Amino acid sequence: MKINVKFLASIREIAGAHELQFELSPGGTVRDLLEFLEFHFGAEFKEAAGKPFEDENPKIRFLVNGRDVDFLQGPGTELKEGDLVVLIPPVAGG
Q1: Which residues of 43-80 are buried (b: 16+ CB within 10 A; e: fewer)?
Q2: 2-88: which CATH number, 3.40.30.10, 1.20.120.420, 3.10.20.30, 3.30.2270.10?
Q3: What does the pLDDT look like over 59-83, one tens digit per residue?
């Protein structure tokens, strides 16, 4: 199945694009996508992402079709054909 992934801020620099499409196995989850992205983009992505489903203050948030996965099924949120996943690193402002 094809999943669209948008990268914001520093994650976009690592990905080299604002949005990319990836092929995942049917029934794939957000955790599966994270593992795929870590493999695809390597150590720099892995360092930037940290452990988003284990850390109290994650380095990156996942939104699936505009909804934070924390309000869905967390890393076990199942993805479907055509879903849009947005990766958001923390930003500060004032």
Answers
A1: eebbebbeebbeeeebebebbbeeeebeebeebebebe
A2: 3.10.20.30
A3: 899 999 999 999 999 999 999 999 9
